[in-house]
């Protein structure tokens, strides 16, 4: 049951029975994420006041310049999940390898692994524009009591048991699904409590917003170029509105509320696009589908892709179902 203005804590307890496997372990894990998100929120809000903006001077495994907040958010989530001994493994956009949680009371007996993008939209930090965190949760597939292996992380998105994001925006929200719809909670910063503000979120079936980094137009596949021209045509309810923040979390969040499509296609320079399948696309695809939307690589369902590498990338089209299907038809016609 969902009740508006319920706190996230109440919601987790009341809906625990609907969680897959209902042992309480997943509830505790989501509680830990809620706590880490509050800590990161506190840091993000101070950016500009204290010395936490700008680059660290290191390059991450993605080939990107790590920002101080990338590192801080990564450490906060890892430390919170590790200290609470709540997961058996963690993989992060910011770490070359997955982390095995050792020295637990119940050595390697926790059931879940977490995969995360600790800070999404890093390029927005220094200019005071919304950033986010994305998380994805699976049950381990290797036997309990043994250290996790890469197989626990390389699971297709359709096996996720929960996924969500935090948006550090005009207000801070935690939006998540456990496969039973999508609910959004807004943080009251004075009380440090999240309240259910957006129960049962749904992507409108159609929309009039397209979100894509059009600066890369020249490098896009023909089907995407054709779709962009379609969006700009003066016909029926078009031209559509173009909105692109450059933070996947914020772009998807807006489009889920207003109706729209997000595209990060392959380019002639990056045939697999830019976004990471495990930390960005799978969790967003799970949320999109749970909200009645759709996520595709232009041809196939994101959640059915069997990953082969931790930091694998994929082209990504996600949003209102009719808009995603329109993009797919343009991709098909250009084959
Ligand atoms: P991150 O900050 O976690 O590395 O993710 C950035 C991603 C995504 O959030 C965003 O939509 C996209 O990169 C923006 O890329 P471009 O600057 O190439 O448009
Ligand atoms: Mn990054
Ligand atoms: Mn990201
Ligand atoms: Mn990131």
Task: List its salient traits.
single chain; 335 residues; alpha+beta; 5-stranded mixed sheet; 8 helices; 15 strands; 30% helix; binds 2,5-anhydro-1,6-di-O-phosphono-D-glucitol; binds manganese (II) ion; hydrolase; magnesium; metal-binding; FBPtase
Please describe what this structure looks like.
Belongs to the FBPase class 1 family. Mg(2+) 2 binds at residues 117, 120, 280. Its main location: cytoplasm. Its EC number is 3.1.3.11. It is found in: Cytoplasm. The chain is α+β, with helices and mostly antiparallel strands and 335 residues long. Helices cover 30% and strands 22% of the residues. The chain has eight helices and 15 strands. It has helices at residues 8-15, 25-46, 68-83, 150-153, 222-232, 248-258, 277-290, 321-333, and strands spanning 55-59, 65-67, 89-92, 99-100, 112-120, 131-139, 162-168, 172-177, 182-188, 193-198, 209-211, 241-242, 260-264, 294-296, 316-319. A hairpin with a 5-residue loop joins strand 1 (55-59) and strand 2. Helix 2 runs antiparallel to helix 3 (68-83). The radius of gyration is 19 Å and the shape is globular. One manganese (II) ion binds at residues 62, 64, 93, 122. Residues 70, 93, 117, 119-120, 122 line the site of one manganese (II) ion.
């Amino acid at each position: 049951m969902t009740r508006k203005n319920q706190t996230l804590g109440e919601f987790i307890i009341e809906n625990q029975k609907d969680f897959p496997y209902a042992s309480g372990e997943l509830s505790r894990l989501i509680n830990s994420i809620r706590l880490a998100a509050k800590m990161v929120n506190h840091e993000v809000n101070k950016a500009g006041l204290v010395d936490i903006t700008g680059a660290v001077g290191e390059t991450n495994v993605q080939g990107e310049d790590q920002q101080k907040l990338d590192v801080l958010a990564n450490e906060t989530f890892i430390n919170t999940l590790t200290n609470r001994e709540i997961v058996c493994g963690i993989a992060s956009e910011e770490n070359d390898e997955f982390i095995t949680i050792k020295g637990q009371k119940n050595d390697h007996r926790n059931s879940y692994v977490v995969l995360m993008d600790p800070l999404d939209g890093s390029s927005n930090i220094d200019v005071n524009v919304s950033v986010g965190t994305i998380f994805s949760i699976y049950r381990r597939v290797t036997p309990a009591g043994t250290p996790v292996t890469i197989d626990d992380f390389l699971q297709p998105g359709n096996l996720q048991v929960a996924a969500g994001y935090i948006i550090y925006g005009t207000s801070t929200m935690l939006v998540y699904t456990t496969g039973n719809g999508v609910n959004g909670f807004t943080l009251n910063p004075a009380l440090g409590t999240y309240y259910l503000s957006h129960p049962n979120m749904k992507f409108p079936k159609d929309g009039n917003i397209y979100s894509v980094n059009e600066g890369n137009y020249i490098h896009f596949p023909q089907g995407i170029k054709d779709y962009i021209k379609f969006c700009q045509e003066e016909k029926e309810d078009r031209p559509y509105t173009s909105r692109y923040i450059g933070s996947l979390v914020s772009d998807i969040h807006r489009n889920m509320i207003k109706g729209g499509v997000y595209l990060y296609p392959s380019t002639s320079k990056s045939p697999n696009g830019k976004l990471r399948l495990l930390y960005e696309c799978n969790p967003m695809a799970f949320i999109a589908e749970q909200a009645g939307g759709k996520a595709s690589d232009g041809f196939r369902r994101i959640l059915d892709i069997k990953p082969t590498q931790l930091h694998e990338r994929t082209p990504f089209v996600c949003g209102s179902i009719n808009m995603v299907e329109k993009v797919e038809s343009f991709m098909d016609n250009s084959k």
